[in-house]
Design brief:
Length: 143
């Protein structure tokens, strides 16, 4: 077992033993963290789908593995959507693989510029923050 994954798994597990604690953990793209048990204590897995074939394939495999590992809730978010072509590519792929898209976050150059200035996304005033806040609301209130 990789020490880094074991440490993260233990940290998250310990945090979630406290009543009412919500932890959001941003994992790297790919399947390694799931296959190493890093997400053992996860009750919701948010899988980001970007409009590129490899990203779509990785998202599909991540959703399947999350479900196989017994994660209670696995949701998909269309991310970095620039236009109708991106939206259609993601929607078509998701539809062909039985994936329901919970939210859509547009590509936003303000986030990129803010990152270059080492700013937190919330401090950028980026238009995509509206979509991100809506996603947060949907995650907190699943019904």
């Amino acid at each position: 077992m990789c020490r880094a994954h074991a440490a993260v798994r233990q940290l998250v597990g310990g945090m979630l033993q406290e009543k009412g604690v919500v932890a959001v953990v941003d994992m790297e793209a790919g399947l390694e963290h799931l296959s190493r048990g890093t997400s053992r204590h996860v009750d919701t897995l948010v899988v980001m789908m970007e409009p590129y074939y490899r990203a779509l394939e990785t998202a599909r495999r991540t959703v399947a593995l999350g479900k196989e590992l017994g994660v209670e809730r696995v949701v998909v978010v269309a991310n970095k959507v620039r236009d109708a072509v991106d939206r259609k590519a993601i929607a078509d792929y998701a539809g062909a693989h039985g994936l329901d898209i919970l939210a859509e976050i547009p590509y936003d150059d303000e986030l990129r510029r803010g990152d270059q200035k080492r700013m937190a996304p919330v401090d950028t005033g980026a238009p995509s923050l509206v979509a991100i806040n809506a996603l947060a609301d949907a995650l907190v209130s699943p019904d």
